[in-house]
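Go through the following before class.
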Amino acid sequence: MIDGKANIYFNDILVGVLTKEKGKYYFRYTEDYLLNENNPPISLTLPKQKEPFVSDFLFPFFYGLLAEGTNKELQCRILKIDENDHFTRLLKTAGYDTIGGISVRSI
């Protein structure tokens, strides 16, 4: 399971950066996104704040963007991804065709 970084967009506006480093996950809103009072938080579980969110597992909000069942199996087989490597799955599959306005683009 690889470490890495991804830009998180909401309707093509950069919201923040999701990072996996040494087995921990971090999400931090960008300063520009925080400064605009009209920008909503991307999730109730990730309210707007300056401090990064830290977790030992992929945040449920981002996990919810991943395919399940047959679609998951197909994506993992075609993209040669371990089914348990949720971060890599997110980076490789949530770039453009996601439900809602959130997209994840590897840095």
Notes: The chain has one domain: 4-106. The radius of gyration is 14 Å. The chain has a mean pLDDT of 93.
